[in-house]
Specification:
The longest helix is centred in the C-terminal third of the chain and has 16 residues. The chain has 2 domains: about 160 residues, Rossmann fold, CATH 3.40.50.280; about 280 residues, pyruvate-formate lyase- activating enzyme, CATH 3.80.30.20. By secondary structure, the chain is of the alpha/beta class. The chain is about 40% helix and about 15% strand. It has 17 helices and 15 strands. Helix 13 runs parallel beside helix 15. The strands form 3 sheets. The protein has a 7-stranded mixed sheet with strand order 2-1-3-4-5-6-7, with helices on both faces.
């Protein structure tokens, strides 16, 4: 059987945060190990287009088409699935990714042309499913396939989430199919020091219970780490074979695995890898101390994302963030005092229960802290998150179009605010933070190329494009 893995999103409408597709890369490796032929069509690569995807699908020289689906990519996935089935009703169609993980039943209901789906990790389950359908494992039951979603007797069934324990056994992503040089210079968070860059993953899972996040439905709550040897081998491979000079470590909890973090940093130093390192998805503040921070910097770390989230203690409690404002101030000042690492503070405004004063507290905190960038997003009811389930139960999401869920759209407004107020507060948050000489000069110093500048301006345009 031959498989085409597809990310149906394209960069035609000015997408942000375009990076190497580790998810499809890992799936491809697993399928190859099990004897399947695999291609990847990732729509955000350079030169890709919706027309190009349609032309690729019309060739139909595949037995299986697998689609990576985010909530906001449902219309694109639906269009591609319908095209595939119209051309060859017998092709096996499978969906996976964040949306099926967060709301499995809704995903299969929304995408009726999908035959099967997977929640969470699919590296073990997908090859097992395809072998069953191909007659190689006829005694295997659907119930035996990890993380499978399927239809049965008019309903939808979901197997329990089974996180993969041995991450080293997965091997590296199929880098020949997701060559870092095929992607635009559009890094996560807009910040980069060197190109080419590549994302890399060293751990999976998150032990925390933030009510705005659904990541533990994808990767589970138990933190599982690769071995330092495995991580360093992959870094050297990318460094030598693809010229990668910056790694964006996209873990949610890299510094929570302290021994792994230390071993990776020491390995980079000992191997003499001249690379820059950033953590665009953020690190947990309470896991940081002076020894670890200095080692991170010595290994090449120049940028950290910090999940500050709010300047309101009330909101932090609602978020179940498990951190206080005092801890935030102490850790941010520690980073500033003992390193030259630049920091991005992540803030969420418009959280359920918030009022204008709560948001003003966040704006004030962003200016008080010695951070270099501020990323302000308006709360999104991410399918599968605790807050999503709460709002759904209360009937407050009945009119939300989840196809519009992106970090630049507003799909939910707290009862104590109006849509106009929320837009104005977000604009105020950005203007008050960035219109300061220290911040402006720092941002100008980070621009690496004309392509990088255009990408940054596109992000700025997204922020201020909403009608007031």
């Amino acid at each position: 059987m031959k498989v085409l893995l597809v990310n149906p999103l394209t960069n035609e409408k000015g997408m942000l945060n375009i990076t190497t597709n580790l998810g499809l890369g890992y799936i491809a490796t697993s399928l190859r190990k099990n004897g399947f032929g695999v291609d990847i069509w990732d729509g955000v690569k350079k030169g890709m287009s919706k027309k190009g995807l349609h032309e690729r699908l019309r060739r139909l020289d595949y037995d299986v088409a697998g689609f990576q689906v985010y909530t906001y990519s449902i219309p694109y996935a639906l269009e591609a699935l319908r095209l595939v089935k119209s051309l060859n009703p017998g092709i096996i169609t499978v969906i996976g990714g964040a949306h099926p993980s967060g709301d499995p039943e809704a995903a299969l209901n929304d995408l009726k042309e999908a035959d099967y789906g997977f929640r969470g990790e699919g590296e073990i389950g997908l090859p097992k499913l395809l072998k069953k359908l191909n007659g190689e494992e006829s005694d295997c039951r659907f119930e035996d396939i990890p993380n499978l979603i399927w239809r049965e007797n008019g309903g939808i069934r979901c197997n329990p989430l089974q996180p993969i324990e041995d991450l080293d056994a997965l091997g590296m992503p199929s880098w020949d199919l997701i060559n870092p040089n095929d992607y635009p210079n559009a890094p996560i968070g807009a910040v980069a020091k060197n190109f080419p860059l590549s994302t890399i993953s060293t751990t999976r899972g998150c032990p925390y219970s933030c009510t705005f996040c659904a990541n533990n439905l994808t990767m589970g709550k138990k933190v599982r780490g690769r071995s330092a040897a495995s991580v360093l081998e992959e870094m050297e491979f990318l460094y030598n074979n693809y010229g990668v000079r910056e790694f964006q470590i996209i873990d949610d909890t890299f510094t929570s695995k302290r021994d792994l973090a230390i071993a990776v940093c020491k390995g980079i130093i000992e191997r003499g890898l001249k690379v820059s390192i950033s953590f665009p998805n953020g690190v947990r503040l309470k896991t940081l101390d002076e020894e670890l921070l200095k080692l991170l910097e010595k290994a090449g770390t120049y940028s950290l994302g910090l999940g500050i989230e709010s300047g309101s203690e009330k909101t932090l409690k609602t978020m179940k963030k498990a951190q206080t404002l005092q801890e935030v101030r102490e850790k941010v000042n520690l980073i500033h005092r003992c390193t030259r690492i630049r920091m991005t503070g992540f803030f969420i405004i418009g959280y359920p229960g918030e009022d204008r004063e709560d948001i003003l507290k966040s704006i004030r905190l962003s200016k008080e802290l010695p951070i270099h960038r501020s990323q302000v997003t308006i709360f999104l009811p991410v399918p599968g998150s605790e807050m999503y389930r709460k709002l759904k139960k209360e009937g407050k999401l009945d009119h939300v179009d989840f196809r519009d869920i992106t970090f630049h759209n507003i799909v939910y407004v707290p009862e104590n605010l109006t849509l106009r107020q929320l837009k104005m507060l977000r604009m105020r948050a950005y203007l008050e933070f960035y219109l300061r000489p220290r911040i402006i000069l720092g941002m100008l110093s980070e621009i690496q190329s004309w392509e990088h500048l255009k990408f940054i301006l596109r992000r700025v345009g997204k922020v201020f494009s909403l009608n007031i």
